[in-house]
Amino acid sequence: MVPQPIEGDAYGALLIEQWETGGALEIVERDDGFLMYDPAAARQYFAEPEQWQLLDAAAVSRCAGSVLDVGAAAGRVSLELQRRGLPVLALDTSEKALRVCRGRGVRETFHGTVFDLLDRQPERRFDSILLLRNLGLLESPAAAHRYLAALDELTTDDARVVGTGYDPYATDDPDHLRYHDRNRAAGRLAGQLSLRVRHRGLATPWFDFWYMSPDELERAVTGSAWRVAEVRKAGSSGYLAVLRK
């Protein structure tokens, strides 16, 4: 029998190893057993702005005022926003990731979700919320409005949400297409994923992540405090979206 990983902060352990040795490998497991890994993925969490992908740079350039960096990872974006003179709070559910952030010079961090932040600091407001590669945190059509409502409460009247995501339909990979069919058979949209991050003998808890098309994003925000103000595509599947109230 193949030994099962121990549940723990695998994501944070990955970032610490990459920070200390430069040789970590990120592995993401889908709930159908499919493993996804990119030898360069761990390095990207520490990339300098001149090494960023086009949409990453474009997303950061659209932030203004005080910024909430959701899913801050190793802090590359928070550090750049600080360099630009913007007040920024780096938020992550991984305490080890935030340890890396602070060690690299990020001034303010928060351990938890946006819901935790709203509970613990209910008076705090931001002008921009950054979901870099994290639009999928909306989780599902059913969960999206709760998440969008929390972002509404955390922001000023003229705030924006800036995020990047991937269109799941822009693929001909048979492994992904089979998962799309599996989702549809279960009454889910093609891009709804159940994932966990693995690192050595650890694995994070399973979590939901939604790769949505721009049209699905439009439908997700309908009836919320937000509207899609801008969509910018790059490559075959990546896109930037800006939401405004």
From TrEMBL:
The keyword Lyase does not apply. Keywords: Methyltransferase, Transferase. One of its GO terms (molecular function) is methyltransferase activity. Residues 67-142 form the Methyltransferase domain. Signal peptide: none annotated. One of its GO terms (biological process) is methylation. This is Methyltransferase type 11. It comes from Nocardia terpenica.
